[in-house]
Amino acid sequence: MGKGGASIPDEEWERFLREAEAGAPGAPEEPSARARMVARQLRDKPGQPEGWRTHQPVRRRRGKGWYAVGLLVAVGLLVVALDPGRVVGWFGGGGGESAPLAAESESPDQPPATEMAAQLPTVEQPFRGSPAARWGDGTAGISLPAARATGWMSEERVEQTLDRTRDFLAASSLNPGVLRGERPRKAIALINPRQQDVQDYLTTAFRTPSRDNNPLLLFSRFEKSQVRLVGNVVKTRGRITYREGKRGAVEVTTDVTYVYPVVRAAGESDEVARTIVRREVVMSWDDPTKVVTEPGTFSLVSYKVDTTNGGCDTYTGYFTPEFNAERAAAGSGDGPEVDPYDRSKSMDSRMREAGEAGCGTATRS
Questions:
Q1: What is the mean pLDDT of residues 176-204?
Q2: Which residues neighbour 59 within 8 Å (Cβ) at sequence distance 6 or greater?
Q3: How do residues 66-81 score in pLDDT, each as one tens digit?
Q4: Is 187 inside a domain boundary?
Q5: Residue range(s) defining the domain that contains residue 267
Q6: pLDDT digits over 8-62, tens only?
Q7: How far apart are CA 210 and CA 44, in angstroms?
Q8: Is 82 exposed, middle or buried (0-12, 13-18, 19+ CB in 10 A)?
Q9: What crossing angle do the helices spanning 65-82 and 10-22 adopt, rounded to 10°?
Q10: Which among 37, 287, 311, 330 is least surrounded, fewest beta carbons within 10 Å?
Q11: Dihedral of CA 142/174/322/206: which sign?
């Protein structure tokens, strides 16, 4: 290096070359609570929408001068060309400093790249070391398709329906009050009040939550006396699709992954943990001339949910994320390993792989 510059130690240089060739080490493991699929069909009743299915959780060399600099730059450019996503982690990405990913318009064919080195999240950078650092903020990470006339709806009405669908996702999984444990009234108001079994489930889930009646299957809530969210941003990635359903209805499918960073509510700990939730919700926006419904509401068709670090076999109505001390005490789960950021597999595949296995282990947080 020139005068006043620091040379690169042999050990650092060799480590750099090894890592550039071999890739990142494995990420820390953490418990993964796996929500499984359990089908339940409503009895056919005159004047009511057909059945909905609930999915319940089961117990987841040293160089000199310009030669060294030139070689370092050359190697760096090669690595960037081969894996640009990996380089993000080298420079502390995760606090909004990295270039965001383009919207997800279709299912990816592989999971996100692993970071070059393990980087722990901080209060200032709660998504550091995570693929979510490049995801969208809130509803910005949920892509909408172009509207076209479908079923009983015109193009303009389909566009309104897609917007209302995204409103439900915001009200159920992003609303600050709901995340602090409040009842998701705005989200519930968008669900067909004539779908009686669904309404009964909602009433029971918030009054006496259980494995069979768990509000977390549709809504994201944390106990504010236990944890608090870090900052005002929830990272998301996912998409909304639609097609013509039964009796000309517009059937909308939402598949979104949410990443929630939290710290303990009590004490002065600044350790950040992340809860990762992927939900697929299918809803039917019915023609009110053919199905008994309220205008502007949808009938629930099905849902599936997969949760990492939200509590395993706990049914309090709130996510219960674990921190380092709890993870160390609990050890690894007895279920399969899973990458919670992998959206290349469908939710059906995720559920089949999980089967009846117990609490699994996440390969990264």
A1: 97
A2: 312, 313, 358, 359
A3: 333 333 334 444 444 4
A4: yes
A5: 24-60+101-111+130-362
A6: 555 555 555 555 454 444 433 344 433 333 333 333 444 444 444 434 343 342 2
A7: 26
A8: exposed
A9: 20
A10: 330
A11: negative
Q: Give tens-digit pLDDT for 128-157.
A: 999 999 999 999 999 999 999 999 999 999
Specify the amino acid at residue 253: T
Looking at the domain assignment, is residue 224 inside a domain?
yes
| pLDDT exceeds cutoff 70 at 326 | yes
Look up residue 133 and give its two tokens: 């650092």
- Identify the bridge partners of residue 240 per DSSP, sorted by sequence position: 254
Q: Examine residue 46 and state whether it is found in any structural domain, yes or no.
A: yes
Q: Tens digits of per-residue pLDDT, 102-115?
A: 999 899 999 998 86
- 108: which 2 tokens? 């990816």
Q: Are strands 142-143 and 299-308 parallel, antiparallel or unpaired?
A: unpaired
Per the structure, the count of domains in the chain is 1
Between strands 360-362 and 337-338, the pairing is parallel
Contact in structure between 217 and 303 (CB atoms under 8 Å): yes
Q: Which residue has the tokens 């240089």?
A: 13
Instruction: Check if the beta carbon of residue 110 is closer than 8 Å to that of residue 48.
Output: no
Whole-angstrom distance, CA of residue 72 vs CA of residue 298 = 57
**CB contact at 8 A, 10 and 62:** yes
What sections of 153-269 are H helices per DSSP?
155-173, 176-179, 185-188, 196-207
Query: Residue 250's beta-bridge partner residues?
Result: 244, 285
164 conformational bin, left if phi > 0, alpha if psi -120 to 50, beta if neither: alpha
Nearest Cα residue to 274 out of 340, 336, 224 = 340
Instruction: Render pLDDT for 222-260 as a digit per residue (tens, 0 to 9).
Output: 999 999 999 999 999 999 999 999 999 999 999 999 999
Find tokens 């004047």 and name the residue: 47
Residues 6+ apart with CB under 8 A from 345: 353
Residue 209 is given by DSSP the state: -
Q: Does 288 map to a domain? A: yes
d(CA 58, CA 307): 11
